[in-house]
Amino acid sequence: MTSAKTLRTPKALADAGLIAPERLPALERVAAQYAVAITPAMAELIDAADPDDPIARQFTPTEAELQVRPEESADPVGDFTHSPVEGIVHRYPDRCLLKVNHACAVYCRFCFRREMVGPEGLRPLSPHALDAAMAYIAERPDIWEVIVTGGDPFILSPRRLRDVMDRLGRINHVKVVRFHTRVPAVQPELITDELVSALQAPGKAVYVGLHANHAREFTPAARAACARIVDAGVPMLGQTVLLRGVNDDPETLTALMRAFVETRIKPYYLHHGDLAPGTSHLRTTLEEGQALMRAMRGVVSGLCQPTYVLDIPGGHGKVPVGPDYLSEAGVEDPAGRRHAYPLSPSEDKEA
Ligand code: SF4
Question: Do residues 145 and 95 lie in contact, with contact meaning Cβ atoms separated by under 8 Å?
Fold first, then answer.
């Protein structure tokens, strides 16, 4: 299945053969609530004959999104409650988010910011709002790292990214700038030399976090786009959302983590699915997530091991959620056997 343009409506998805036309009325209701976009690179990866295709599951709207559970929330990670000025989310003392735009190349059906992102957010922060956000960062010497996110910052033009980096480059106490994006995988043609060069600023360590959830996203074009970034001296980190029916089995998760490492990207976080509205069909339990992490430990290279994290609802921060290998009974090895280990130093014996 090929398509030259990003598919942005259920009708376009039906015309491309990605959804059955009889589903259009229900999916129009979903699309009226949550933005839809599937780039040509992702549309080409979808096997329309497979009802469980893991790429389709991430990007194709479904009727299940209309079912909102009581525990779900429009702002599951507390962005609004931690936003002192437009464009800034400041949750932890030494770092803040700078949300430069609210649009993305694709719209993920499980997005934790699904109530905030979409085509109506296409306009980046206004010049006045960007000035105020930069002033907020400049006035707080504790901010050591700025995480540039959105939306997806890599859909901005290299000129705009250069402007953001130039401004951050002038703030001495900011030492690290991290970009979060899906673009190298979902729209790799945007990763031009010009864009990569716009990420550089003298004296700043720049990282790019790539969000990818299935090894199939690492197409030759995606790998080449990542290589352009890494070859320019910009280290990359992998971020994955644990998703039911996409990557919630040990073989699929292992293949994904290996694809990251083969592309010179260190898996960083495996996110437990956030309580975003209409996403329960894609969420696993914490217990299932822990079992997956256990299955990879000891079998798969340590380089491939992300930290499994939960963003506590309400904006209380991200914490590792195990599994835990240490208890009063000792320490557990990767095969599940317990071994005695002193939890505190023993008393010195008298000579
Ligand atoms: S790219 Fe990120 S911000 Fe955009 S829809 Fe996907 S998860 Fe949400």
Answer: yes
Q: Which residues of 113-148 are buried (b: 16+ CB within 10 A; e: fewer)?
A: bbbbbbeebeebbeeeebebbbebbbebeebebbbb
Question: Which of 132, 41, 155 minimizes the C-alpha distance to 83?
Answer: 132
Catalytic annotation on 92? yes
pTM for this prediction: 0.95
Q: Say whether 111 is catalytic.
A: yes
User: How far is C-alpha 69 from the geometric centre of its chain's CA atoms?
Assistant: 23
pLDDT of residue 119: 81
For residues 74-88, give the mean pLDDT: 91
Residue in the block written with tokens 């036309």: 21
Choose the residue to mutate in 108, 214, 241, 242 for probing ligand 1, maximizing ligand atoms within 8 Å of C-beta.
Answer: 108
pLDDT at 275 over 60: yes
Q: Which of 57, 107, 108, 294 is catalytic?
A: 108
Kindly report the length of the chain: 351
